[in-house]
Amino acid sequence: MIYLTRRYDFSASHRLYNPDFSDEKNWAVFGKCNNPNGHGHNYELEITVKGQPDPRTGLIIDLAEFNQQVNSRIIDLLDHKDLNRDVSFMADQIPTSENIVIAIWNELVPYIPAPATLHKLRLMESRNNYAEYQGASLLR
Amino acid sequence: MIYLTRRYDFSASHRLYNPDFSDEKNWAVFGKCNNPNGHGHNYELEITVKGQPDPRTGLIIDLAEFNQQVNSRIIDLLDHKDLNRDVSFMADQIPTSENIVIAIWNELVPYIPAPATLHKLRLMESRNNYAEYQGASLLR
Amino acid sequence: MIYLTRRYDFSASHRLYNPDFSDEKNWAVFGKCNNPNGHGHNYELEITVKGQPDPRTGLIIDLAEFNQQVNSRIIDLLDHKDLNRDVSFMADQIPTSENIVIAIWNELVPYIPAPATLHKLRLMESRNNYAEYQGASLLR
Amino acid sequence: MIYLTRRYDFSASHRLYNPDFSDEKNWAVFGKCNNPNGHGHNYELEITVKGQPDPRTGLIIDLAEFNQQVNSRIIDLLDHKDLNRDVSFMADQIPTSENIVIAIWNELVPYIPAPATLHKLRLMESRNNYAEYQGASLLR
Amino acid sequence: MIYLTRRYDFSASHRLYNPDFSDEKNWAVFGKCNNPNGHGHNYELEITVKGQPDPRTGLIIDLAEFNQQVNSRIIDLLDHKDLNRDVSFMADQIPTSENIVIAIWNELVPYIPAPATLHKLRLMESRNNYAEYQGASLLR
Amino acid sequence: MIYLTRRYDFSASHRLYNPDFSDEKNWAVFGKCNNPNGHGHNYELEITVKGQPDPRTGLIIDLAEFNQQVNSRIIDLLDHKDLNRDVSFMADQIPTSENIVIAIWNELVPYIPAPATLHKLRLMESRNNYAEYQGASLLR
Prior knowledge:
In chain A, 26% of the residues lie in helices and 31% in strands. The first copy, chain A, has 140 residues and is of the alpha+beta class. Chain A has a single domain, classed as 6-pyruvoyl tetrahydropterin synthase/QueD (Tetrahydropterin Synthase, Chain A). β1 (2-14) of chain B pairs antiparallel with β5 of chain F, so a sheet runs across the interface.
């Protein structure tokens, strides 16, 4: 098995808060990430797929198709957007790194070009903070 | 002369638009940076001061005082904030990198601990884009 | 399971040698890391915890408590210190990356805020060299 | 078990194409990587070995011997070379990241200084693209 | 004056040699960069323009036009190319960083969108090596 | 004029203190950098030379000679050393970034291979802190 990882960038804003919490509780739980007008990040998304290299090409994936799927289904929907208000697949979710990376997995997993399969996602919110997820591939 | 540079991070959201422009003109000028709900960045600010090392300390600046001034007057006001709505010294300005770096200069220049003086600011909006400014020190 | 990683910095000095070895053997085994007066590094520590996001917060960990534990039990004891002489939990150990990362695990593992658990540590001594450890969680 | 990773750099050129494909098919599969005169990269190779630290040294590997093996068997043969024409262990292979990382594994695995063993290789072709491989250690 | 810098990537191969030199002299002058089949790099190009922010936009340059000029006149001609054989504006020049950065300046300087002007170019061949040039703007 | 920069790494330990100060004053001025047993850094040194490319080579400097001078006169004397005790050209100086970069300039300036001349030094103590110096070239 070979694991191939490609990195993508997007810039987005978000605010962490739970509308069911009091203001006090929101500040206690989320700290400055609860600032009412939001803040933002240069996110980096690393997508790892696994497979066997095709002996005719030495590649495990059709990169043109892969990039087209990632950009149209994920990056174009997140880049230069507000994660609380602009992204339908994040609706009604608190946009923590944890929740974003799970949501991206669920959006992307059916569209990885066969025979490769999705192995892992890493979402870096900043140089000091990242979340990783290896979800089920059952949706395939 | 020795030039000493210190780097600071802040995460913020912004939206580029001019309320005097039509929607069409805002999109033509600012592109996706005009997204109505904003987006965000992990900004990096490099502050360069210049001076002669004090022969008793080998330092050109009192770092504790410098950090205190930078954090209280700049970073605490920008970090985890919306640059369009939360920052009084950016009021009525379009928060481009160019305008932000000039505004930071004007806020910071009177408070650099003597005998060092402010030499240059670099504001990195992302790995691919940064603005630099060397303003007047006359305010001193 | 979500894996969340946070990065911390500390600057420290160390010297690699075994007092039971001859000088010749110390140089043969440790090379220039055996320099008698020591040398130093900007270390980076990546701490990975795992858990399920709390559905009310989208978070797997109380970050304020986590940071407080990491800083008071690890970073404050290592930053701007000599790893051979200043760190009680490294006493009588050769401060290789391998030994430091195991010692940090043992110090930190009882204090990860539940229900998250410690998953992995990565200690980068330089851009070209890092050690990783996944120890037992039995101490919990 | 401790995992120790060391990073190495090499600069090389390559061209992706299959001589059994038509020109049209080569362009369709490999895109601009099929440019007839080739192109190049600053590759980064991360080599991860695993083992138990020797209680007398705190090390899992004899670093001098390790560096000597990696440099003489891998880096010296790849650095400032054309991967299609200059590297005997890549002969008759399409120099994709996938194929290069497998070939490096097979060259390196017999020469890791015992008792450490080779655990993983990561080959970064650029900041946005890397391949990882964990092959068999049976050759030992 | 504000200085705005944008970073671009391209991957290319090259070989350093002077056809008027003997083989021995080529090796003596260029070392391993003289390898007959060439080698390659992930180049980074930083382009710095200067100007006054337009008070209506806060910008010193029309970024869409700027990117279009840089990509069509420079990056598309260099990316995934052989600098010795594929680039007409490098014909009959030894593709050192020094010569490449001067050639890029001459190609780019007439096309910077007014009223901004080209200020400086930095070409990074690797993390350890870069060339900078501030040529004349007379061509404008 | 072309400016060529090459980057070098060294790891060293140091302690900031002035023996003429009281303990209290040393802590007040130098903070945790005054820790008695010292601490350390992975320093990065960027050396910028300027010159005209030789039309026969496209180079402004003989890189083999340059590297030999930098390594033997600077890097070999600083790497894996204690800057307070092991470096003769730092004797009786407080090893701040400011003082180190001036001392390196004075050591290096007579040995830059002509016709290139030394233009600037940048010494990075960490990702967040660097000193730059452009001294006189009179020693030549």
